[in-house]
């Protein structure tokens, strides 16, 4: 048998649930499913959006091709009158980082969140029609995480009623802003506000970078690309830039003034809006990143699962077929938790979107009460999901053996494009330390203030600290209440222990720094409570379709018990579980893997990923792996000729022992 077509047909027959209904559960609703299915097919059937050759292109070609795709997409948006939601899906399925990501996900949201009504009226229509193209220039060569440490200055000049934007040092050069090196006409530049020699914090300013007629940088602006990034193709379609400002004048009304204002006289006015709102765009994007994690992880898992069903190694009996590698328990114990994680992240992403929408509405009505919770949740879940997804994609590469390392597997480019998500929009450790601040505060107030939102479980601090897990058999782990309580007890105990140890330090900041590694672990434990609880909440809803809910329950237990196994050190050290109970959880996990096994292919089919999106020979829907790998090898331009460039010049003289006279 040459390819794997028959293997996947058989696999699909084994499914014990309604795949079409699971597709709807994954998408969130029938309407969402139909919408994304339509846009996915639109992109897949359009040759301009071809991406298989991307890793083979040089940087300039890659970039130009990306500009062409964006222009074509914009034309489609106009010609087909696509809604904003459809346009976002179009960008997702085109699957190529581009300046439009910054325009729609950072520049516009920054103006929406931090601009005054007048500023929104002026800039938003221009941006939404792409008459100005904007980026988000916060990070500098010398500072990224420490936003208060930025050095770019915005000094008010009362004579001209303008701000003077200036880069006083090399390290103050803006460094990283996407879309900026070659495309954006404007940027939101974060700079230190200086009024009459006094520093008034870091604020955002709309700065024009390029002439709208001929696209040349404006006087006083030096701009360029920061260079090639990790991997071929991948994030190199994006023009991440460096900008240096030499006393660039902008009108006073281009400071984003919802949070604070500067008057005509140069007076600083602080409104009732908390200064943290200046960081609001990052909260928005972190929430988007969480929603995106399940998309990236599900792609890698889909590839690795299909390939694991096609691939056979060892164990042939009487000349029969060898064992499908998906049947090895070791393969299942690496793959199925990732499959379950994709579903867990999908549901927590959905919940976080709801939370963000709620916070946004409150902020618009000047209710800032839930902002700290929203910040902690978005920061923590961004960190948890992106770290797990990046690690998960790499694990999927290994699950595909040697072929996973081929670019045609689709995994290397996916990994290279995805992995910076662990760094951008807040380094993942720095983000977990923000959660830690929130937790420490919550724990220190437990005696007199009822925790709310995602920390509400800590109201039961006494019970969670004192009672222990009652599980006696592996079967008893199949109870959502028992599982969630184990996570809540472990998290509460870790947070309280950190609080007690912090209290021993005279200087709280010193204590926080000293215990920061433990605090990051406590924060992760808390974020895992959120993911596990939101999965349970999802299961409490009505989920139509034969067998769909049952399979999601299996995946929930796989996700939770896998985490429990992985972090059993914490569960044991905090004293909530006994070694016997941890071992029973692991026994249950093995049973669960055998329940996933017959459904594995149908579960990844339920992601509804097109072959275009996967861009993977190993993950092809039809499983026809080997002939297509072979064909792709000989389609590689490197195989255009049997004699590669350089063979006659450098190899033949060696073979002939003529290297001494060769021209090298
Ligand atoms: C993978 C695909 C993704 C798909 C979809 C998305 C589309 C993506 C678009 C393009 C992709 C990438 C572009 C990337 C862009 C960028 O990376 S932009 C730059 C991002 N930079 C950062 O994230 C910097 C991280 N640093 C910070 O956020 C802050 O500096 C930090 C919070 C670490 C510290 O700030 P300080 O001012 O020093 O604050 P601190 O004193 O610690 O805290 C004061 C107080 O404020 C609270 N706080 C902090 N941040 C926020 C916030 N955002 N919202 C609300 N509250 C906040 C903090 O908890 C403290 O509270 P407390 O009560 O006083 O303790
Ligand atoms: C692909 C990509 C696209 C980007 N796009 C943009 C963009 O469009 N606009 C923009 O403004 N920026 C952008 N950035 C920049 C990005 O936001 C920053 O790189 C990010 O916020 C991390 O900051 P840093 O580089 O200063 O890391 P650093 O803070 O220097 O991190 C270095 C190390 O120090 C550790 N560390 C730092 N502070 C602490 C602490 N307090 N406690 C413990 N450990 C700490 C970190 O964990 C990390 O291990 C982009 C970055 C990438 C990679």
Automatic annotation (TrEMBL):
Q: What are the record keywords, sorted?
A: FAD, Fatty acid metabolism, Flavoprotein, Lipid metabolism, Oxidoreductase, Peroxisome
Q: Which GO terms describe its biological process?
A: fatty acid beta-oxidation using acyl-CoA oxidase; lipid homeostasis; long-chain fatty acid metabolic process
Any Pfam family hit: ACOX_C_alpha1
List the subcellular locations: Peroxisome
- InterPro entries for this protein: ACOX_C_alpha1, Acyl-CoA_ox_N, Acyl-CoA_Oxase/DH_mid-dom_sf, Acyl-CoA_oxidase, Acyl-CoA_oxidase_C, AcylCo_DH-like_C, AcylCoA_DH/ox_N_sf, AcylCoA_DH/oxidase_NM_dom_sf
Residue intervals passing through the bilayer: none
Recorded protein name is Acyl-coenzyme A oxidase
Which molecular-function annotation in GO is an example for this chain?
A: acyl-CoA oxidase activity
Q: Which family does it belong to?
A: Belongs to the acyl-CoA oxidase family.
Q: Where do the annotations place FAD binding? A: 139, 178
Q: Which residues form the active site?
A: 425
Listed GO cellular component terms?
peroxisome
What residues does the Acyl-CoA oxidase C-terminal domain cover? 480-655
Gene source species:
Centaurea solstitialis
Which cofactors does the annotated protein need, by name? FAD
Where in the numbering of this chain does the Acyl-coenzyme A oxidase N-terminal domain appear?
18-133
Every copy of the Acyl-CoA oxidase C-alpha1 domain together lies at: 279-440
């Amino acid at each position: 048998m040459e390819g794997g077509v028959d293997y996947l047909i058989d696999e699909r027959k084994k499914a014990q649930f309604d795949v079409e209904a699971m597709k709807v559960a994954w998408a969130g609703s029938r309407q969402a499913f139909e919408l994304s299915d339509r846009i996915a097919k639109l992109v897949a059937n359009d040759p301009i959006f071809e991406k298989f050759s991307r890793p083979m292109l040089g940087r300039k070609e890659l970039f130009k091709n990306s500009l062409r795709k964006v222009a074509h997409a914009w034309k489609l948006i106009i010609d087909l009158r696509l809604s904003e939601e459809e346009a976002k899906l179009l960008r997702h399925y085109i699957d190529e980082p581009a300046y439009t990501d910054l325009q729609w996900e950072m520049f516009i949201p920054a103006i929406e969140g931090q601009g005054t009504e007048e500023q929104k009226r002026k800039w938003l229509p221009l941006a939404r029609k792409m008459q100005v193209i904007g980026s988000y220039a916060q990070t500098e060569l010398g500072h990224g995480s420490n936003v208060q440490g930025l050095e770019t200055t915005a000094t008010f000049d009362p004579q001209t009623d303008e701000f003077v934007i200036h880069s006083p040092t090399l390290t103050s050069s803006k460094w990283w802003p996407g879309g900026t090196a070659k495309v954006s006409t404007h940027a939101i530049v974060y700079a230190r506000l200086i009024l009459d020699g006094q520093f008034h914090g870091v604020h955002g300013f709309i700065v024009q970078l390029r002439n709208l007629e001929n696209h040349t940088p404006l006087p006083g602006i030096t701009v360029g690309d920061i260079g090639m990034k990790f991997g071929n193709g991948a994030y190199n379609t994006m023009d991440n830039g460096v900008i240096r400002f030499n006393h660039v004048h902008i009108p006073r009304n281009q400071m984003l003034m919802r949070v604070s204002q500067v008057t005509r006289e140069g007076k600083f006015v602080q409104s009732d809006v908390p200064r943290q709102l200046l960081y609001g765009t990052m909260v928005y994007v972190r929430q988007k990143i969480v929603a995106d994690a399940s998309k990236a992880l599900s792609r890698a898992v889909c590839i690795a699962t299909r390939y694991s069903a096609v691939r056979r190694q060892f164990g042939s009996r009487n000349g029969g077929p060898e064992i499908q590698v998906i049947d090895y328990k070791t393969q299942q114990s690496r793959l199925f938790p990732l499959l379950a994680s994709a579903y867990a992240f999908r549901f927590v992403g959905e919940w976080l979107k709801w939370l963000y929408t709620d916070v946004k509405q409150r902020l618009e009505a000047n209710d800032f009460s839930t902002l700290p919770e929203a910040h902690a949740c978005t920061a923590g879940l961004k960190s948890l999901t992106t770290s797990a997804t990046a690690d998960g994609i790499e694990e999927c590469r290994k699950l595909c053996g040697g072929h996973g390392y081929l670019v045609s597997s689709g995994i290397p480019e996916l990994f290279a494009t995805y992995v910076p998500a662990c760094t951008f929009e807040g380094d993942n450790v720095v983000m977990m330390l923000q959660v830690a601040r929130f937790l420490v505060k919550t724990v220190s107030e437990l005696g007199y203030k009822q925790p709310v939102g995602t920390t509400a479980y800590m109201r039961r601090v006494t019970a969670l600290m004192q009672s222990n897990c009652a599980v006696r058999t592996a079967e008893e782990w199949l109870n959502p209440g028992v599982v969630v309580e184990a996570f809540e007890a472990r998290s509460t105990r870790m947070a309280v222990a950190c609080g007690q140890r912090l209290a021993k330090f005279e200087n709280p900041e010193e204590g926080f720094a000293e215990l920061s590694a433990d605090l990051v672990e406590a924060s992760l434990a808390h974020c895992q409570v959120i993911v596990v609880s939101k999965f349970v909440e999802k299961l409490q809803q009505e989920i139509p379709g034969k067998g769909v809910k049952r399979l999601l329950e299996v995946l929930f237990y796989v996700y939770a018990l896998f985490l429990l196994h992985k972090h059993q050190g914490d569960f044991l050290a905090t004293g909530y579980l006994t070694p016997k109970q941890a071992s029973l959880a692991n026994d249950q996990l093995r049973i669960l893997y055998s329940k996933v096994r017959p459904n594995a292919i149908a579960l990844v089919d339920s992601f509804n990923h097109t072959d275009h999106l996967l861009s993977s020979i190993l993950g092809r829907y039809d499983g026809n792996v080997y002939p297509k790998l072979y064909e792709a090898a000989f389609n590689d331009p490197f195989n255009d000729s049997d004699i590669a460039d350089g063979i006659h010049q450098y190899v033949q003289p060696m073979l002939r022992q003529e290297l001494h006279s060769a021209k090298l």
